[in-house]
Amino acid sequence: EGQLVESGGRLVQPGGSLRLSCAASGFNFNIYWMHWVRQAPGKGLEWISLIKYDGGATSYADSVKGRFTVSRDNAKNTLYLQMNSLRAEDTAVYYCATLSWSETDFWGQGTLVTVSS
Amino acid sequence: DVVMTQSPLSLPVTLGQPASISCRSSQSLVSSDGHTYLNWYQQRPGHSPRRLIYRVSNRDSGAPDRFSGSGSGTDFTLEISRVEAEDVGVYYCVQGTHWPHTFGQGTKLEIK
């Protein structure tokens, strides 16, 4: 059974940087487009980024464009999210997901990022 | 960006009764390849989202058959034929036809 496990979330000061990781196992990571989705405390889901299966295309929500960068290492079955210039409004649980439109769909358990001084 | 508008935002339902959630998009979700990239997710309290329906009307293998999806173009619906206690949670639609992808605001289903 496929699994995604996020890590790297912690308390960080405004203006700081953080890199999240998402380790995939149990499915062919190399053929999936991958996404990051976040959820602020008590709020709904917000799609923030995607990356094509070969890393050849990316897309970002306006709220993170220019500050966040998504990447992947298919040899390590790992997805990354580099977050710079963090703001209080970036405080959220960050999920990695396949957000699939046909084949099996996988989501991680989420990792909490708190931006506060 | 495509705006996804769900209604209602709060849905109190009696056990055993049907429920319906609407999701409307600000642009057609029919892609140039002919597919419509609209999924429905359930998020139970304290859990990650779980997909119920993909591409409008295809039920996930693990989703109960009381869940069904329908719609086309800009209007989509998730229906629950008979609500059970385990259906409590928040339901989201999400579109992937246009970049950036966008979620609806969520509909909170509770038992009356």
Task: Describe, in short, the structure shown.
Chain A has 117 residues and is mostly beta strands. Chain A has no helices and 10 strands.
Description:
The complex is a heterodimer of chains A (117) and B (112). Chain A has 117 residues and is mainly beta. Chain A contains no helices and ten strands. The relative contact order of chain A is 0.32. The model of chain A has no long low-confidence stretch (mean pLDDT 97). The N and C termini of chain B lie far apart (36 Å). Chain B has no helices and eleven strands. Chain B is 0% helix and 48% strand. Chain B has strands spanning 4-7, 10-13, 19-25, 38-43, 50-54, 58-59, 67-72, 75-80, 89-95, 102-103, 107-111. The A-B interface holds A 35, 37, 44-47, 50, 59-62, 95, 97, 99-102, 105, 107-110 and B 1, 35, 37, 39, 41, 43, 48-51, 54-55, 58, 60, 90, 92, 94, 96, 99-106.
Features:
heterodimer; A: 117 residues; 6-stranded mixed sheet; 4-stranded antiparallel sheet; 0% helix; B: 112 residues; mainly beta; 11 strands
The biggest beta sheet of chain B reads: 7 strands, mixed
Give me the Rg of chain A, rounded: 13 Å
Distance between the termini of chain A: 40 Å
Strand content of chain B: over 45%
Low-confidence stretches of chain A: none
Largest interface: pair, residues per side: A-B, 22 and 26 residues
Radius of gyration of chain B: 13 Å
Strand content of chain A: over 45%
- Average pLDDT, all residues of chain A: 97
End-to-end span of chain B in angstroms? Answer: 36 Å
Structural class of chain B: mainly beta
| Global morphology of chain B | globular
Topology:
The complex is a heterodimer of chains A (117) and B (112).
Chain A: E1 3-7, E2 11-12, E3 18-25, E4 34-39, E5 45-51, E6 58-60, E7 68-73, E8 78-83, E9 92-97, E10 111-115
Parallel strand pairs in A: 2-10
Antiparallel strand pairs in A: 1-3, 3-8, 4-5, 4-9, 5-6, 7-8, 9-10
Chain B: E1 4-7, E2 10-13, E3 19-25, E4 38-43, E5 50-54, E6 58-59, E7 67-72, E8 75-80, E9 89-95, E10 102-103, E11 107-111
